[in-house]
Design a protein that fits this description.
The complex is a heterodimer. Chain A is mainly alpha-helical. Chain A is 77% helix and 0% strand. The N and C termini of chain A lie close together (8 Å). The chains are: A mainly alpha, B alpha/beta.
């Protein structure tokens, strides 16, 4: 329990620092927020009124306390342009992005873990060299470029998968409780919509994960190679354990934690990178929302996006750390 | 009559393993490492393989059974239980079936158990693979309990569910032995089974292996570089050097055996050196006035506690109430097992770590209140030689720069020509020639590296040398050479020395006085001979008993 508590405190501290940074962020951007919010034609009086309304006349420390207090109540402020609460915007935009990242992460894990393990087992063979070469190429491809190429070939030329959007036209009126179409379609008993969602997700998710997979694969390979060199593998061989048994029962559980840490961080990075594929595949999502907010100088919205991505990043890492703790028996009994 | 005689000879002399002209290389190198080796092991025999590291002992034993990934078989026949397993350098049977009939005990029990699997399950897996009993069945479980108690693990029921980290090295090696025995093998191969263990544990493990095998009628191959151990344990021993077997003989009859000179020196080893050095030292040593009025080092009531991390406050190791005095010209030994606090104490003496409490006076002055100038002087007066001669030399510095660096710091006034001359002289003192100057640490053997480390330490003419297990990473014959070098240095220079070791033989050769450490305390101290011949403390006798 001690460890969980410590880890939790650590996350809270990180969250606090993150909040402080995002708060300061909104104050260092050039231009007076009141002037920006009031619009180009506002007079000095209106600007002054807005300044008081926005609390900008108070000292910075007090502003921060007010800001944190509002955050704790789930108030991320209103967008200066839509005048809607930003929280509502985010609750609408986050599920499609998270869905995308989940699928991308799944593909990532499905490729990099087994391939990394095999590559380590057969290290320095032709198989391993080709895998490493592919990983190098994968790591060198920019996400937007992969996305464009795949869209152009797989979707447009071969028509194997949908070209853009979240759902096909015939399902355009579909709506569910959670905003995660994969979950909603199952809850409503619509496997056809589930399948349609998945088809729409595949290309963007694949383009998004490719770069991360290349990294994950290399890390997994390195971690597994060092496990294969340990004596317990030799001892398992002397027990007459089959190579498959050695790979999956002995090496994998010991090597996986090293990669798991990286995958946890990748989750957050992926969410930050969704903008690249969301734009190309015309998907709603937090990335697109962020771009729009930036181009409109909607500073509150930008700050909120930064905060939310940060929180997801912290959460993913928290989960990974707790998972590692549970998976690693050595950590448990030292309590 | 023929029939009967054959039967008797057959049952007595049937070999379990027969190796004929066996050669092996490595996949990535063109050179053969094992050159046409032949030997055979009789059923029920305990067969030793001796040799220094790099002589090919491990490669030989692993490659025969297809367990060495990088091995490239090059030729020869190998028979296991009269069945051909290797024909002309080609494996002719399945490794898996063979592995079931052979038990392996590997060198390092800290890495040979899977850290994330309960130890009971690791034994259960072996039983499952050999006999098909499901690892969760009660039958399998009972077999595991029986094995655990057979190898001397207390409370098997409880131990079953524990992880390797919860056991000491010796206990882990017992678990590995249990795994090896669990498949009812016909041949047990123990590859340096005690090298990674403390002296006092070594003997118990070897006794266990020998006991169990004799009881079960098992044949054993015991690979070791510890000749005293082999001499006391095995029926016959093969001496390997550079991939060849030089001699095979009964070690108890070495005096009458017709062996090559290398084997002779190897087995004379430390004992031979002991006598020579003792004779050498006798004359020179009395010159020193050990017990001059005040001690060189005066330590009172030193305490040092380590906590493992900032968040966890458990103090898992400590030194407590250490008092010691060392006089100029003495050679003082710190004896004890790993974890007893020897190295920590040495680090305090060299002022590398600061204790939590206590006083430390060097030549009557408090070390902890030194000015930075005094500290610099102190650091050149007290030099340290480490256990791992490779780790302690910077791999990117050639030997000239390594020694030069020390000289530049501690004797900045020397001209470059004088420095060069001094470096050459120093290397000469430790038995190396000029060609060493331009070479880098990796180009030297372990023994040569330790010589360089000694030269570096001596370069600043220190008053005191603190040697932290300087021999333990070296081979037996190299150990003897380095010991001789130390004794020569003691003869030539007026120097005080602290010698940390777990090896009682070494302490007997070099040290005037010894301090015995256990669990962070000094349990006994005094003149080497009197302490070791008449130990007062139980721990000291334990250490002495463990020696072969």
């Amino acid at each position: 329990m001690n460890y969980f508590f410590q880890r939790f405190l650590f996350s809270i501290l990180s969250l606090f620092i993150l909040t402080l940074i995002t708060f300061l962020l909104s104050h260092v951007v050039p231009g007076d927020p009141a002037i920006v919010a009031a619009g180009p034609n506002a007079g000095a009086e209106k600007i002054e009124l807005l300044r008081i309304e926005m609390g900008l006349d108070k000292p910075l420390s007090q502003q921060f306390i007010i800001y944190t207090g509002k955050l704790l109540q789930g108030d991320l402020g209103n967008s200066w342009f839509t005048h809607q609460p930003i929280l509502d915007d985010l609750l609408r935009e986050l599920p499609p992005s998270l869905e995308l990242v989940f699928i991308a992460m799944t593909i990532n894990l499905l490729i990099s873990l087994p391939l990394g393990l095999c590559s380590a087992r057969y290290s320095d063979t032709i198989f391993d060299s080709s895998v490493r070469l592919l990983a190098m190429v994968g790591a060198g491809l920019p996400i937007f470029w992969t996305a464009l190429i795949l869209q152009n070939t797989v979707a447009a030329e071969w028509q194997a998968l949908p070209i853009a959007g979240r759902l096909s036209f015939e399902y355009r009126s579909f709506d569910g409780y959670t905003g995660f179409y994969l979950i909603d379609s199952l809850l409503l008993g619509r496997p056809d919509i589930f399948w349609d969602t998945l088809r729409h997700l595949f290309l963007p998710a694949f383009s998004l994960c490719l770069l991360f997979t290349a990294v994950g694969l290399r890390i997994t390979r390195t971690a597994m190679i060092s496990e294969f060199q340990k004596d317990y593998v030799l001892l398992a061989r002397t027990k007459a354990a089959s190579e498959l048994r050695i790979m999956f029962k002995h090496v994998f559980p010991n090597g996986a934690p090293a990669s798991l840490t990286v995958f946890g961080m990748q989750f957050g990075w992926m969410l930050g990178a969704t903008v690249l594929v969301e734009e190309i595949y015309g998907r709603p999502g937090i990335g697109r929302y962020a771009v729009k907010a930036v181009t409109q100088s909607d500073i509150h919205a930008v700050v909120a996006v930064v905060l939310v991505v940060g929180v997801v990043f912290l959460l993913a890492n928290l989960i990974v750390d707790l998972l590692l703790y549970i998976l690693n028996p050595r950590g448990r009994f030292k309590e | 009559m023929n029939l009967d005689a054959n039967k008797i000879i057959g049952s007595q002399k049937r070999s379990i393993l027969d190796v004929q002209n066996y050669s092996v290389g490595l996949k990535r190198a063109n050179q053969s490492l094992i050159l046409s080796v032949s030997f055979s092991i009789i059923k029920g025999e305990i067969f030793g393989i001796a040799g220094e590291s790099g002589s090919g002992k491990t490669l030989l034993t692993l490659s025969m059974f297809g367990l060495h990934n990088a091995a490239r078989l090059e030729g020869g026949d190998v028979y296991f239980d009269d069945k051909k397993i290797i024909e002309n350098g080609i494996k002719v049977v399945d490794t898996k079936n063979l592995a079931l009939r052979i038990g392996f005990i590997l060198q390092d029990p800290f890495s040979s158990l899977n850290p994330s699997v309960r130890i009971g399950r690791q034994i259960a897996e072996a039983i499952y693979l050999a006999k098909g009993k499901s690892p969760t069945s009660s039958e399998n479980c009972a077999a595991v309990y029986e094995l655990l108690s057979e190898v001397g693990i207390p409370d098997p029921q409880n131990a079953y569910d524990q992880y390797p980290d919860q056991f000491s090295g010796g206990m882990r090696q017992r678990i590995v032995i249990a795994i090896a025995l669990s498949q009812d093998p016909e041949l047990l191969i123990a590859d340096e089974p005690t090298t990674a263990l403390d002296a006092s544990t070594q003997r118990k493990i070897i006794d266990l292996i020998v006991d169990r095998s004799r009881q079960r009628g098992l044949s054993v191959i015991l690979v070791s570089h510890n000749l005293a151990l082999l001499g006391a344990t095995v029926d016959r021993v093969a001496v390997m050097k550079s991939g060849k077997i030089l001699d095979i003989f009964n070690p108890r009859k070495i005096k009458s055996a017709d062996v090559k000179p290398y084997t002779k020196t190897l087995f004379d080893g430390l004992q031979g050196v002991t006598h020579r050095i003792k004779k050498d030292l006798k004359g020179t040593h009395e010159k020193y006035e050990y017990f001059s009025s005040s001690p060189l080092i005066d330590i009172k009531n030193i305490k040092k506690t380590f906590s493992s991390s900032i968040l966890r406050k458990s103090a898992n190791f400590s030194l407590s109430n250490i008092d010691l005095e060392i006089y100029a010209g003495e050679v003082v030994g710190f004896l004890g097992e790993s974890g007893s606090g020897k190295s920590t104490l040495a680090s305090i003496i060299t002022n590398l770590i600061v204790p939590n409490a206590g006083t430390y006076k060097y030549k009557g002055q408090n070390v902890f209140s030194y000015s930075s100038r005094q500290l610099k002087k102190f650091k050149s007066n007290v030099q340290m030689i480490f256990q791992d001669p490779y780790g302690s030399l910077n791999p990117r510095y050639n030997i000239r720069s390594t020694i030069n660096e020390a000289l530049l710091i501690h004797e900045p006034d020397l001209s470059s020509a004088a420095r060069e001359q001094k470096i050459v002289q120093l290397l000469d003192d430790v038995g190396l020639d000029n060609t060493a100057l331009k070479k880098f640490p990796h180009e030297f053997s372990g023994g040569q590296r330790q010589r360089i480390a000694i030269a570096r330490a001596m370069s600043v003419d220190p008053e005191m040398l603190v040697c932290d297990e300087p021999l333990s990473s070296l081979d037996v014959s190299t150990q003897a050479q380095i010991l001789t070098l130390f004794s020569a240095l003691l003869g030539q220079k007026k120097i005080t020395m602290i010698f940390i070791t777990h090896d009682i033989n070494v302490a007997q050769i070099l040290c005037d006085r010894v301090y015995i450490l256990s669990n962070g305390r000094i349990v006994e101290h005094g003149e080497t001979q009197s302490v070791l011949s008449n130990p007062q403390h139980e721990y000291t006798s334990k250490l002495i008993d463990a020696v072969y």
